[in-house]
Design goal:
By secondary structure, the protein is α+β, with helices and mostly antiparallel strands. Helices cover about 25% and strands about 25% of the residues. The strands form nine sheets. The chain has a six-stranded mixed beta sheet, with helices on both faces. Strands 12-13-26-25 form a four-stranded antiparallel beta sheet, with helices on one face. It has a four-stranded antiparallel beta sheet with strand order 19-21-17-22, with helices on one face. The radius of gyration is 28 Å and the shape is elongated. Bound molecules: zinc ion (ZN).
Length: about 550
């Protein structure tokens, strides 16, 4: 717990943190004499708006400096004598003065009383930090809560050291992965810069070859033809330890949604504590995480009991038509499936459930006629489609997680012609498999309202939902326990999007998804991953492989 020595007792600690505060593990140096605001702290500020102006009016504020420039810290701290010589009201909006008592005490209380033993602030503290991250906008986190994560604060003359041993800095896998960060970033860059859109088999194959090259010596790699798509990779990893007959399947995909040439407008870059570029988050970083996780296991000689198979599909982003059977075959022989898709949100939640995804094409055929001369003999397909879509949209049941979205419509030829044909593409999502069957029945029961029109329906459920099954929850609990050893509190989530994990979960094989990168912007221009979470995510994958 917190220990405070010497004149630091006069200071107030403002701890600003991101979602992963506990991963702050080395030391920060605080120069109390530095005027101005919090300078080059770096990473925390990409999500965190500390509002330095709220205190920069006071010229004795601290500047937090990261001691080890190789490290990405999740904390920034400031130490100052604000309670001694600045009234709380001067703090303006950056520090939230929730209780009126705070004002009075700030003025007359010796600062010492604010620093109750083992806590930074006492029970009446009302200081809060204004956090502004893209996921939870404007969240308030009390200083005291965060301060509980601080340990051993010592004052050495003008310099204070902060440490938090909650993170096991001795974890060999974590240190291995941290120490290889520059090399890891270089590899992710290489992956991102080898573009691989699903519909370009040659490009996907190029990327597959690159991954295979990087696996040389570490795995036996087989390629499986993907028909009109690129090749799929199936790799049996060489890992230390004696094998049982169990198998773990690790799933990922080689393809991205980005067309060739995207790099010109969206080049790979490393800035603001993130890596940016097409496909970096979904899911080239995830592949790299697995590669380095297994490399750590090999180099540290940590035994793995199960046979580990890595399967990388070439067509995931377009429905996995050519890889599905392979995925299901390998999953059926496995006791667990780990999916390298990105985590949810900037917390990197794992995915223990995913919605099932389907799509329908609804085609209406009517009778064309001249809208002026011969209106009555026409039967409008456009009108009929519009009426059908109104019906279809009523199938949505948000409470049950059932959604129906007519996303694309087309039809007709000219405004003065009664339309002979119209069509719609409709996306459907369900949380439960039985809802999918019910929904399909409803779609199939659609009949034309205008009897002169006819309806054709194509499609159906493409990916079954990944329901939150007991086996998956057990896997998640294990991951949660292992993550705690790394200083990370893992959460789970339900994703509206599908992945190849949907297929494996539907077979009843425990499937844990979202083990890849922490970041945001999948399929979007802000696609990026958080560099400071690269180590713990890859370490978690390694620990899972060793524990299963
Ligand atoms: Zn993906």
């Amino acid at each position: 717990m917190l220990r405070i020595h010497g004149p630091l007792v006069r200071s107030v600690f403002l701890i600003c943190e991101l979602a992963h505060y506990f991963r702050f593990r080395d030391e920060l140096t605080i120069h109390r004499r530095t005027p101005g605001h919090f300078g080059n702290v770096g990473p925390p500020f990409d999500h965190c708006h500390f509002q330095p102006q709220c205190i920069s009016g006071h010229d004795r504020f601290a500047k937090a400096r990261v001691l080890n420039s190789n490290e990405q810290h999740q904390f920034s701290l400031t130490v100052g004598d604000i309670l001694q010589d600045q009234h709380a009201r001067r703090l303006r909006h950056g520090l939230n003065d929730e209780h009126s008592r705070h004002h009075r005490e700030a003025r007359k209380m010796p600062a010492k009383k604010w620093l109750v033993e083992r806590y930074v602030l006492n029970g009446n503290d009302a200081l809060a930090l204004h956090l502004n991250d893209p996921v939870h906008k404007q969240k308030w986190v009390t200083v005291r809560q965060n301060a509980l994560n601080l340990m051993d604060i010592e004052n050495r003359h003008e310099t204070c050291y902060y440490r938090t041993p909650r993170v096991n800095t001795l974890d060999p896998i974590l240190s291995y992965l941290r120490s290889h960060e520059p090399e890891r970033i270089a590899l992710i860059r290489q992956f991102v810069e080898c573009e691989s859109p699903s519909d370009d088999a040659a490009a996907v194959n190029r990327f597959g070859d690159l991954v295979a090259t990087r696996l040389r010596g570490a795995a036996t790699v087989r390629t499986i033809p993907g028909g009109r798509f690129g090749k799929h990779l199936l790799c049996e990893m060489r890992l230390p330890g004696r094998r049982t007959s169990d198998q773990i399947l690790v799933l990922g995909h080689l393809d991205t949604v980005w067309p060739l040439g995207t790099l010109r407008s969206m080049p790979f870059r490393h800035s603001d504590g993130r890596l940016w570029g097409p496909g970096v988050f979904d899911m080239k970083a995830g592949i790299e995480f697995f590669l380095f996780a297994t490399r750590a296991l090999r180099e540290l000689d940590l035994p793995v009991k199960s046979r580990v198979m890595l399967q990388l599909n070439s067509d995931e982003e377009v429905g996995s038509e050519s890889s599905r059977a392979l995925t299901e075959k390998n999953a059926a022989q496995s006791k667990a499936v780990l999916v390298l898709e990105p985590g949810t949100g900037l917390e990197g939640k794992l995915k223990t459930a995913r919605k099932g995804v389907g799509d329908f094409q609804l085609i209406v055929r009517g009778t064309a006629s001249h809208a002026g001369v011969d209106f009555e003999s026409g039967a409008s397909a456009v009108l009929e489609l519009a009426r059908q879509l109104a019906r279809v949209s009523a199938f949505t049941d948000l409470k049950r997680g059932v959604t129906v979205n007519p996303g694309v419509i087309s039809g007709g030829t000219r405004s003065n012609v009664v339309a002979a044909e119209a069509r719609a593409e409709i996306d459907m999502r369900v949380v439960r498999l039985r809802d999918a069957a019910a929904l399909e029945r409803k779609f199939r029961a659609l009949r034309p309202l205008d009897r002169r029109c006819s309806i054709e329906l194509y499609g159906g459920l493409n990916r079954p939902p990944m329901e939150r099954a007991a086996g998956t929850v057990r896997l998640f609990r294990l991951a949660q326990k292992l993550a705690r050893e790394l200083g990370v509190e893992l959460q789970e989530s339900l994703s509206g999007g599908g992945s190849d994990g949907n297929f494996t979960a539907a077979l009843g094989v425990p499937t844990l998804d979202g083990l890849g990168a922490v970041g945001e912007g999948a399929h979007a221009a802000n696609e990026s991953i958080v560099v400071s979470r690269m180590a713990d995510r890859a370490a978690l994958i390694a620990k899972l492989l060793a524990a299963l």
